[in-house]
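Lecture notes, continued. The same structure-token format from the folding unit now serves as the input rather than the output. Read the line below as a description of shape only.
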């Protein structure tokens, strides 16, 4: 099994909305991937409430059956459709992929 974790720090304002609104939209978009991606076992999206200088605003925790399933996820049209919006509203992105 593979875990894929991504954390985003968002811009204060982007795409006509504030940080909190964009965080919620990212959560909604990513939760919409449930049941659409072969090999995706679990997906969880959290919005940070600590609001410290060091915290990320949104975190994605996901599990895949294999590295191949994770690779396929990156190319899947449903996932690709989320990338433009997230790219437009994020300030930075951190990712970690590891096998369990």
């Amino acid at each position: 099994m593979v875990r894929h974790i991504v954390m985003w720090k968002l811009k204060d304002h982007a795409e006509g909305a504030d940080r909190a609104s964009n965080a919620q939209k990212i959560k909604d978009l990513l939760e919409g991937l449930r049941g659409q991606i072969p090999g995706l076992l679990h997906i969880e999206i959290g919005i940070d409430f600590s609001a410290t200088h060091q915290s990320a605003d949104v975190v994605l925790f996901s599990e895949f059956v294999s590295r191949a399933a994770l690779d396929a996820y990156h190319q899947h049209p449903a996932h690709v459709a989320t990338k433009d919006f997230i790219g437009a509203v994020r300030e930075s992105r951190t990712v970690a992929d590891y096998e369990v």
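Point for the exam: Residues 19-31 form the longest helix (13 residues).
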